[in-house]
Amino acid sequence: MTCLPLSLTLGPPSKYTPSFRCNAGPIPHGSIMAFELTVAGGKPQLVGQWTSPDMMVTDSPTVANGMVFATQTGEQTLQAQRLPPGSQRPTMADQPSNTDSPISTHH
User: Fold this and answer.
1) Which site among 47, 68, 87, 103 is 20 to 30 Å from 15 CA-CA?
2) Model-level pTM?
């Protein structure tokens, strides 16, 4: 039997996700899912095999010598600041000159 990690989820799995033989509990934030590719009645199908534990923003898994290595970045996926309607986004020029920012606007 060959199982391949084919799916990364960012958030809870869909209600249409198949059941898995092995799982590590609830996965409200995301996971890696492994499926076995089988043929039934002449049609290919994916059969759920296992899920990783709950992970925050998973990276693509790496498979080496049959072992799956998984990482989570924990990255903040919300990239935009929530500003009031009509507000302009702040720029580096808007920062005070005495900031501890590693990016300098002065040469």
Assistant:
1) 68
2) 0.59
